[in-house]
Amino acid sequence: MGRVTLQTFKIRISNMLIATAALLFFSQAQAADKPELTVYTYDSFISEWGPGPQLQKAFEANCECNLKFIAVEDGVSILNRARIEGKKTKADVLLGLDNALIETTRQLGLTQQHNTDVSGLSAHLNWSDKHFVPFDYGYFAFIYDSDKIPEPVTSLEELIQSDAQVIYQDPRTSTPGQGLMTWMKAVYGDSAPVQWQKLAGHTVTVTKGWWEAYSMFLEGGSDYVLSYTTSPAYHLIAEGKSQYKAALFKEGHIAQTEVAAISRYSDQPELANQFLNFLISPEAQKIIPVTNWMLPVIENAELPEAFDQLIQPKTIGFTPEQLANNRNQWLREWRQAASQ
Fold it and tell me: What dihedral do alpha carbons 103, 189, 138, 155 form, nearest 10°?
């Protein structure tokens, strides 16, 4: 090989820089050409240990798009933000609403019909809604540390009558908090305000969202925290800890089905439908249970053995229509009773 002159070397370096700049420009142009799908969800969903990062990577591998998550505290906050923004919303998909919010969201006209194939959903869900697609489900429960509490309460009544320290979430901003509000009405009916007052006497705090409440509990801030029957599976699988348990209540438990829907104001419903179809695919349904720590919505989904150890509660509650019709009244009832 002959000697390279200084001038030739400079030319080669210049050409390399031009090529690199051209490649960078081309890559940026390609990224800019890709459509962006914006999904409103809750903060724990997109945390580093939540399903968001894995779902984003898997979906973007096939969608020829950029998936962008925007997070708020909880499902109720998703609804509130979409309602306030109206036609100015950036959301293409609302992900993290639940069965308690379906009818309210529908009445506000915040969604449009999907064309997602829901034939593979578990039969027990009996799902046929044209606007909402379920992506996981579970049951609300009070979690405790069995190393500290060897004999947990066995009913909502027993918890309320006890002096155990409790943390739960605000039903105005949190779907678990709204679940407890529904639980109280299902068990106590018109006498719920009295029970709220009793519970307030040993409630440590009411947090805005789930993550704040659960973090405080793990730091020793309470005896019980409102969460899900599936929470112990997380500790067992992710941490190898078996002391965290869900208390089984003899009155029954409130079920929650989490759903996603296409925003009424999205200008790319085809891509949004593609995402909804992906959420109930075997690939996504394998990710969600062990990152969002809920139960899968499709038949024959793969689950670790730890899920076999979870309590199996009896389901109680109300229809989405009953929840929508009574939600505001129950919220006022809770606010007045809990503040006394």
Answer: 170
Q: Answer for the pair 259, 132: CB distance below 8 angstroms, yes or no.
A: yes
Nearest CA among 74, 250, 88, 38 for reference residue 173: 74
Residue 193 pLDDT class (50, 70, 90 cuts) = very high
CB-count burial class (<10 Å; 0-12, 13-18, 19+) for 126: exposed
- d(Cα 311, Cα 314) in Å, to the nearest integer? 10
CA gap 251, 17 in Å, rounded: 71
Largest interatomic CA distance in the chain: 95
pLDDT of residue 14: 55
- Tell me the C-alpha distance between 229 and 318, whole Å: 19
Side-chain half-sphere exposure of 88, counting CA atoms within 13 A? 4
In angstroms, the Cα distances linking 148 to 44, 143, 158, 223 are: 27, 12, 18, 8
Is the CB of residue 256 less than 8 Å from the CB of residue 138?
Answer: yes
Closest CA to 279 of 141, 126, 95, 153: 95
Q: Phi then psi for 259, rounded to 5 degrees? A: -130, 160
List the Cα angle 196/200/206 in 5-degree steps.
105
Distance CA 104, CA 325 (A): 8
For the stretch 310-325, pLDDT in tens is: 999 999 999 999 999 9
Alpha-carbon distance of 47 to 252, in angstroms, equals: 31
- Distance of alpha carbon 134 from alpha carbon 138, whole angstroms: 11
